[in-house]
Amino acid sequence: MRSRRARWLAGWTVGRPVWARRLLVGVVTLAALVAIIGADYLPPGLTIQAGQPSPRDIESPRTVEFVDLVRTEALRQDAMRAVAPVVRHAPGQVEVARAAVEAAFDAIEAARASAASGPERRRAIRDGVGPPLSDAALSAAASASPQALAAARRAALEALAQTMADGVAQDGVALARDRARAAVRAAGLAPGLTALAADVAAGSVRPTMEVDAARTAELRAAAANMVMPVRTRIQRGESILRKGDVVSPAHLQILAVVGIYPPRVAWVGLGGLVLLVGLLLALTGAYLWQFQREIWAHDRQVLLWSLIVVGTVGLAQVLGAPRFSNFLAPTAAGSMLLAILLRPRLALFSTAVLAVLVGLTAGRELAPVLVAFAGGLVGVFATRQIQRRADFGAAGFRVGAANVLAVVGAGMVDGVTEVRELATHAAYALGNGVLSAVITIGVLPFLETLFGLLTPIKLLELANPAHPLLRRLQLEAPGTYHHSIMVGNLAEAAAEAVGADALLVRVGTYYHDIGKLRRPAFFVENQMGMENPHERMAPSLSALTVSAHVRDGLELAREYGLPRAVADFIPQHHGTSMLSYFYHQALEQGDPPDEAAFRYDGPRPQTPETAIVMLADAVEAAVRSLTRPTPDRIDEVVRRLIRERLEDGQLDECALTFRDLDRIAQAFVRILAGMLHPRLEYPDLEGELSRRRREPATRAR
Fold first, then answer.
1. Nearest to residue 613, comparing CAs of 517, 482, 502?
2. Same domain, 437 and 488
3. What stretches of 39-165 adopt beta strand conformation (E)?
4. Same domain as 317, residue 193
5. Which DSSP symbol is given to 42?
6. pLDDT higher for 509 or 102?
7. Which residue range forms the structural domain that includes residue 308?
8. Which of 319, 461, 477, 498 is most buried, most CB within 10 Å of its CB?
9. Least confident segment among 38-52, 153-167, 457-471
């Protein structure tokens, strides 16, 4: 599987420059993130009409604050109705009323002239006069003398003028008519003439106050404009309609605001999403290129970053509202994976990116962004304290605690005072931390294997003495195992002194000589109490046998699945150095040897870590042979061996500086001086006691 993956990656990168490969990864990542987050901008395929029952339950896909047009319009209508109509005085209505009185009496006179006395005259008067007349009024109109009619006319006009002088409101016409009748009765006419004048005067009364339509409309419009729009907030996952509910105009407005109805693609929102996600990816690329060049240069690590980010956002979309809660999005899982598999600094930067992306999946709410950011940062910090996989549990609770604090703080800022609501959100936030730890511990081994990465946790597992290879080394080559432990102590101290990966150095040292398992007796540290087989071998054959432990070690590394970074210590800790002992032995035998036959195949150390192990390996073997290992002699030997490796070109391909070499030498001397310090010579107590027991007997003889 590993070779197939390597061939695929090699085929993918052939012929493409780095920027083109990074651009391709960015485009694919952008498409994946937009596809995950942009689902809210796609039409839901819903058919719904006002007045009809809803075909299914409908929940809001996002959190939106909007103006409730239906409620706002209802309040505006109430404000307009509360404004009374504006009325104004209409003096022309008095003249119209006087004309009506004159017309009524003119019609009576015309009917009297055209019709004889009797029923025909009464009928003509009733038909010709506008205001309705009572029987008494009809009788007076038909039979009264012209002088009496003239008096009735004057009484009606005076009563009308008196009644309408102060104005008549629209709703005061009935009262004005009563006043007109009373004014006619006060004139002292005969009963029939009084009835006639009262009927004509009351029938001619009309309002003199009319509604100013323009002014009324202006005031009502002003009152409507004074009504503040009713703003409503609907949360993501909040129910809009239940199945069977009758759809109202208010429902249709909410559905339109959240983008559900009418069904349409929100192209503007989708375009903004593409721009925002593209900007985040571009900033991440710029950060990698400028501050994390070692990651920018490796295709696998860039692909891993993309996979973790896309997977984290996908989980946030699945676990967020309306299914569960936006506070359950395990952003810290992505942050911890990035910190363990890549770099903690990159994980810190990516946490901010993930927080924004998770906020987009959560309907652009602020609280989930704060929770994702706080939990992710704590997750990155917690990875520095992880020494074994069981430590992920504590890291998860730390993340959960940070999430709870962020949820409570964000809720208080938003004015959420409902204890039950805050408790529910806090429970989801705490579960978020535990879930992040579970996801991280479950996914980490697969990503380690898939991308061929070496994490501190994997290194700690390899450093376990119970590992099969180390167990074999203890049992089959104990001298080599002890030598590896000693070299590991030296190399780890030196790595810490120059800022190299001390854990990788220690683990690489444990496995750097595993090839000696094939023929342990051919190496001096394993020859206790046995004959040295090299004494009966030609120097060239001995050199070939000893150098073969590098090839044997690489075969064992492949057989046991050691990571590439650990297996590199096997050939590089010797580099192309010479097997000096056998070479000089060949020179002493008189045959000019081929120098290349007495050198290791290499390669030379490619990293500071493998170079440190090369130096520690040589120093430990040389100093162990000193008869009186004083600090000065140790320092002399250490610096001589480092100088020899430097002059032989073994350190040309690693990134160690002269200052680093000096610090490495100081670390070696400090550790070796502590390990090989002279010990006190204790007296022979048993011999002294025996001597004292013999003395009395001697004196007695």
1. 502
2. no
3. 58-59, 64-67, 87-89
4. no
5. S
6. 509
7. 2-39+266-443
8. 477
9. 38-52
CB 623 within 8 A of CB 634: yes
Q: Is 253 a member of any domain?
A: no
Which run of H or E residues covers position 232? strand 231-234
**Span 614-630, pLDDT tens digits:** 999 999 888 877 777 88
Question: What pLDDT score does 682 carry?
Answer: 44
Longest dimension (CA), the chain: 199
Write the pLDDT tens digit of every residue in 422-452: 888 889 999 999 999 999 988 988 898 888 7
Helix-helix angle 658-675:608-624, to 10 degrees: 40
Q: Point out which residues pair with 88 in neighbouring strands.
A: 210
Say yes or no: 404 and 281 in one domain: yes
For residue 636, pLDDT over 80 is answered with: yes
Dist CA 362 CA 388 (whole Å): 34
Domain of residue 7, CATH code: 1.10.1760
Based on the domain organization, do 411 and 478 belong to the same domain? Answer: no
- Does 485 have pLDDT greater than 90? yes
HSE-CB of 517 using CA atoms within 13 angstroms: 24
Structural contact between residues 243 and 55, judged by C-beta atoms closer than 8 angstroms? yes
Residues 406 and 466 in one domain: no
- The pTM for the full model equals 0.61
CA gap 23, 9 in Å, rounded:
16
Does 499 share its domain with 384? Answer: no
E strand spans, 13-139: 58-59, 64-67, 87-89
Q: Distance between CA atoms of 35 and 310, rounded to whole angstroms? A: 10
Q: Which two tokens stand for residue 353?
A: 């990116």
Please say whether the beta carbons of 380 and 347 come within 8 A: yes
pLDDT of residue 699: 38
The per-type count for the chain, helices as H runs and strands as E runs, is: 31, 6
Report yes or no on 453 lying in a domain.
no
CB atoms within 10 A of CB 262: 12
User: How far is CA 293 from each of CA 282, 290, 302, 495, rounded to the nearest angstrom?
Assistant: 15, 6, 11, 22
Residues 6+ apart with CB under 8 A from 362: 63, 236, 316, 320, 321, 326, 329, 368, 369
Among residues 9, 6, 8, 18, the alpha carbon closest in space to that of 564 is found at 6
Residue-level pLDDT at 139:
79
* 564-599: pLDDT as tens digits: 899 999 999 999 988 877 888 888 777 667 777 888
For residue 610, the model assigns a pLDDT of 95
Report residue 263 CA to chain centroid gap. Answer: 28
Residue 44 domain-assigned (yes or no): no
By CB neighbour count within 10 A (0-12 exposed, 13-18 middle, 19+ buried), where does 385 fall? Answer: exposed
Cα distance between residue 398 and residue 433, in whole Å = 7
Secondary structure of residue 650 in the 3-state scheme:
coil
Give residue 690's pLDDT.
56
Neighbours of 683 (CB within 10 A): 8
3-state helix, strand, coil in the chain (%, to 5): 70, 5, 25
- Alpha helices, DSSP H only, in 212-261? 213-225, 249-257
How far apart are the C-alpha atoms of 683 and 81, rounded to whole Å? 117
When divided into structural domains, the chain yields a total of 3
Q: Which residues contact 434 (CB under 8 A, 6 or more apart)?
A: 396, 397, 400
Residue (of 631, 507, 31) closest to 274 by Cα position? 31
Residue 124 burial (C-beta neighbours within 10 Å; 0-12, 13-18, 19+):
buried
Query: Of 215, 171, 209, 208, nearest to 88 (Cα)?
Result: 209
